[in-house]
Amino acid sequence: MPALDIRRSALSSPDGSRLIAALNAELKALYPEQGANHFSISEAQVRPGDGMFVVAYFNEKAVGCGAVRRIDEATAELKRMYVDPSFRGQGIGRALVDALESEARQLRVRRIVLETGTRQAQAIQLYESMGYKPIPLYDEYLESPKTSLCFGKQLT
Fold first, then answer.
1. DSSP letter assigned to residue 2
2. DSSP type of residue 60
3. Which among 4, 35, 139, 150 would be 20 to 30 A from 115, CA to CA?
4. Distance between CA atoms of residues 121 and 140, nearest Å
5. CA nearest neighbour of 20 among 34, 4, 9
């Protein structure tokens, strides 16, 4: 039986770097417009106590990643969510979100927010199916109203 394992990792790890590079390439192809891509996240934002970056391994192959970072005392943000296209539709994205929401709860935030692109129907469907609701654009996403959608969810 195939095994899925989600592990804390460094953004700069070989697997993390490869997955983020693939995510960036996919986003640049989907959104070639100037200013449409928001790639900002740092190691400091995902250190224990502030957030977490994880890599999903399927049968020991790195196939996805994601991060959560604290924005303020009450809110965390999902970032850098990615699943290799050949592994999509197998519940890996859902497992990543579950792991990151669990970490957000450990950070003692009450709300989690995220941005995704208007052209990413699968991602939008995933987030909505997990209880995320549309919210107004925030922070850096205010500058890309034609390509960004933001969602939020109260954590219990």
1. -
2. T
3. 4
4. 21
5. 9
Contacts of residue 34, defined as CB under 8 A and 6 or more positions apart, other chains included, come to none
- Give the Cα separation of 100 and 65 in Å (integer): 10
Q: Backbone phi, then psi, for 81, in 5-degree steps?
A: -70, 130
Predicted model pTM: 0.94
Whether residue 85 is predicted with pLDDT greater than 80 in this model: the reply is yes
- Per-residue pLDDT tens for 43-56? 999 999 999 999 99
Mapped onto helix, strand or coil, the DSSP state of residue 140 is helix
Between CA 6 and CA 27 the distance in angstroms is 23
Cβ atoms < 10 Å from Cβ of 35: 10
Burial 138-151 (b: 16+ CB within 10 A, else e): eeebeebeebbbbb
Rama region for 139: left / alpha / beta (φ>0; ψ in -120 to 50; rest): left
The domains of the chain, with CATH numbers, are 4-34+41-154 (3.40.630.30)
Provide DSSP, 20-43. Answer: HHHHHHHHHHH--STT-------G
